[in-house]
Amino acid sequence: MISENVYVAAPQLGLANVKIFDKSEVEKKLEVRPNQIIDYKALVGDPADNYPGAKGVGPKTATKLIHQFETVDKIYENLEKIESEKVKEILKNEKENVFFQKNWQPL
């Protein structure tokens, strides 16, 4: 949703302190583009939203995969190109969960 004209206001430690996120702030904080946040969160999860992501894939691994393949769909299309056998195995085991998180839409 973040674009040149749309920002996100995120409360920091209560409502008294609010941080404004634009495209560059998102890229600085998460190291992915705003349009890749869904893929990033599908991999790492989000405890605040109560979903786990792929258990065993942390922010560094998720960022590396997204930089290499761009999206969760492309990651799964190219599993054989992932060097780490451990990461491949985690992704295979967590595929259903990752895609559930990626495709989840609030009512």
Tags for this entry?
107 residues, mainly alpha, 2 strands, 48% helix, 7% strand, globular
SSE succession: EEHHHHHH
Question: Helical element count?
Answer: 6
- What do the pLDDT scores average to? 89
User: End-to-end span in angstroms?
Assistant: 17 Å
Biggest sheet details: 2 strands, antiparallel
* Low-confidence sequence ranges: none
Major β-sheet strand ordering: 1-2
Quick structural overview:
By secondary structure, the protein is mainly α.
How would you characterize this protein structure?
The chain is mainly α and 107 residues long. 48% of the residues lie in helices and 7% in strands. It is built from 6 helices and 2 strands. It has helices at 23-30, 37-44, 59-69, 72-77, 85-93, 95-103; strands at residues 8-11, 18-21. Strands 1-2 form a two-stranded antiparallel ribbon. Strand 1 (8-11) and strand 2 form a beta hairpin. The longest helix is centred in the middle third of the chain and has 11 residues, at 59-69. It is globular.
Question: Which secondary structure elements does this structure contain, and how are they paired or packed?
Answer:
Layout lengths: L7 E4 L6 E4 L1 H8 L6 H8 L14 H11 L2 H6 L7 H9 L1 H9 L4
Helix pairs in contact: 2-3, 2-6
